[in-house]
C-alpha cells in the first residue's frame, strides 16, 4: 500500500497531508510505503501503477467532522493544473494511460487555518490529525 | 442596448495559483476595462525576516510547490555573496547547474504537454468537455506517457543534486553539499538519448503549430514590448543559471546591457496599484508607461545573441527567422521557445554528465562576510530576483523578491485587455469559449500566482456576470 500526503507545511493547516505522511512513516506499518509532496503531480502516476492500494492524504476545508475517509474513483474527464491535480484526476490519468486501477481512498483531514505564511498546525487540526492517524492505523491493519 | 456588465473569471484554470480576471462591459457590450487580479497576499518577504542565513535557501522553497528549486538556487546565490563567495568551486557550480537544468526542463514539459496541449491540439473554441488533458491522452497517449517520463527524468536530476525531490538541501551558502556518484551519472546517461529524442519531437510539434497557425499567433495578444533576461557576460549567450542583466526594446536595441545584477534596483522600479497584490515593475529610465517589460522563454530568445548548444541554437535561429531576427512579440510563440529550452537543458545535462568535475570533492568556498546579497536566476517562467540583508547574528533583516510573474504583470494585463477587446466586444452572449481565449493568453505566460496553498473542496473556476447594479445575472462553475 502507498500513502501520499501532500500540501504546503508553510501554510499552516495546508500541511496536514505531509504531517499525516510523517506520522505514518514513523509508525513503520508493515507493507506501507509513504511519500510526501507539495501537491499531486503527473509523475505520481508511475508510483500508482506499481501499487495495489493507495491512500491520498490532504487537508480538507468545510468538513463537519475531524476527517473524511472515502473511496476515490478515476475521473473520466476534467481539467487540471499542475498545481491542483486531484486524486480523481490522477487516478483517471493512471487508468487512461496505463490501464491500471489500484484501490484508492482519500483521507481528508479537516483544517481551519490556511491564510498565514507560517509553519505548524492549528490546535484543532493537530487534534484532527491524531484522530485520522488512529483511524488509519486500525484500518491498515485489518 | 444592454446594461453595463462585469465578468469575472475566478479562479483561473491551468495556471499555477489563484487569480481572477474582471472584464467590464459597457452598455454597447464593448470592453471598458480588463484586469488580472492577484487575490492572495504572499507575505513571504516578512515571513523570512529573522530566519538564519543558512536556512533561507531551504525555507524559500515553500514559496512555491512548482519551482522550489529556482527559489532554492536564487536564495543560495544571494547567500554566496553574504558569505563572501564570488566564485564557487567548479563541482559546486556544475552541480547547481545540473539541478537547475533538471528543474527548468521538467517545469516546461508539464506546462506544454498538460496545460497548453488541450488548447493547441483542439483549439481555443473547442467544447470545454473536450478541451482537457483526458482528451489529449485518449487521442495522443504517447504524449502523455512521454511527458510523465520527461518530468520524472527532471525530478530524478533534482533529487540527485538537491538530496530530496522536495525541501532539497543541496545548495548551501558558498557551495553544494554533495557531488554526483558515478553510478548515478551512468544511470542518467543511459536515459539521455531517449529524453533528447522526445524533446526534439515536442519541439517539432510546438514549431509546426506556430507556423501552421501563423495568422492566429500573430494576431493573438501580440504587441511590442521591452524584454529582459540574464545573458552570459562574456558573449551574450543564453545562460539560465548566471550572467548579467540585459534589456532590449521592441526593436531589439539594448536599453541596458552587462548590468551586474546586484544593481537591479538602480534600473528597475516596482510600482503598486490598489487592485492587485502583485507589483508592476518597470525600467526606471523609460518610466511606467513605456518601461514595462516581459521575461520568460520568449523574452530570452529575444534578448540573447545565441544558444551555446547546437540543436537548441539551430532551433532558435528558426524561431528568430520568423521575424527576420527582430524580437518576436507573439505571446503564443512562448510554447515554441519553451520547447527550445527543454532541448537546451537536455543538451547541457548531457554535457555536464560527461564532466568529471561533478565527481569532485571541493564543494564549498568561504570568504569575508558581507551584509547584503542579491541572487538572480532565469527560472522556467523568467527572471527571478532574491535580495537579502543579514545582521551580525546571521538573521535576515530585509528581503525583496521579484518573481517572474511579477515582471510579467503589465504584459499579462495588456494581453487580457487585448484578447477581451478582440473576442468579447460587441457580443450579447459571452460563451465559455470566449472566456477561454482570455485564459489562453494568461496561460501562455505560464504564470505562477504564488498561491502555494490548496485543499480539498476548493472550486477551480467560477465565472459570474453582474449587471450595472451589481446583481448577479449569470454564474458558471467549472469543476476540476
In short:
Chain B: Keywords: Iron, Magnesium, Metal-binding, Nickel, Oxidoreductase. By secondary structure, chain A is α/β, with parallel strands linked by helices. Chain A has four helices and five strands.
Q: What is the mean pLDDT of chain B?
A: 85
Question: Uncertain regions of chain A: pLDDT < 50 for 5+ in a row?
Answer: none
Which CATH architecture of chain A? 3-Layer(aba) Sandwich
Terminal residue distance of chain B: 36 Å
Please list the strands of the largest sheet of chain B in the order they lie side by side: 3-2-1-15-16
Mean of all residue-level pLDDT scores of chain A:
89
Sheet-strand content of chain A, in percent, reads 15-25%
The beta-strand count of chain B equals 16
Q: Work out the oligomeric state of the chains in this entry.
A: heterodimer
Chain pair with largest interface = A-B, 46 and 52 residues
Largest sheet of chain B: 5 strands, antiparallel
Helix content of chain A: 25-40%
What is the global morphology of chain B?
globular
Q: What's the count of strands of chain A?
A: 5
User: Helix content range of the residues of chain B, please?
Assistant: 40-55%
Low-pLDDT regions of chain B: 11-17, 450-466, 475-480
DSSP strand (E) fraction of chain B? Answer: 15-25%
Reading the helices and strands of chain A in chain order gives EHEHEEHEH
CATH class of chain A: Alpha Beta
Radius of gyration of chain A, taken over Cα atoms and rounded to an integer in Å: 14 Å
Report the structural category of chain A. Answer: alpha/beta
GO molecular function, one term (chain B): nickel cation binding
Keywords (chain B): Iron, Magnesium, Metal-binding, Nickel, Oxidoreductase
Cofactor (chain B): Ni(2+); Fe cation
Organism (chain B): Zhengella mangrovi
How is this structure best described in words?
The complex is a heterodimer of chains A (142) and B (480). Chain A is of the alpha/beta class. Chain A has a single domain, classed as 3-Layer(aba) Sandwich (Rossmann fold). In chain A, 34% of the residues lie in helices and 22% in strands. Chain A has helices spanning 16-27, 44-49, 87-98, 123-140; strands at 2-6, 33-37, 53-60, 67-71, 103-110. Chain A has a 5-stranded mixed beta sheet with strand order 2-1-3-5-4, covered by helices on one side. In chain A, helix 1 (16-27) crosses helix 4. The two termini of chain A are 13 Å apart. Chain B is an alpha+beta fold. Chain B has a domain at 5-40 and 428-478. Chain B has a 5-stranded antiparallel beta sheet with strand order 3-2-1-15-16, with helices on one face. In chain B, helix 4 (90-122) packs antiparallel against helix 13 and helix 6 (141-162) packs across helix 7. The longest helix of chain B has 33 residues, at 90-122. Residues 11-17, 450-466 and 475-480 of chain B have low confidence and may be disordered.
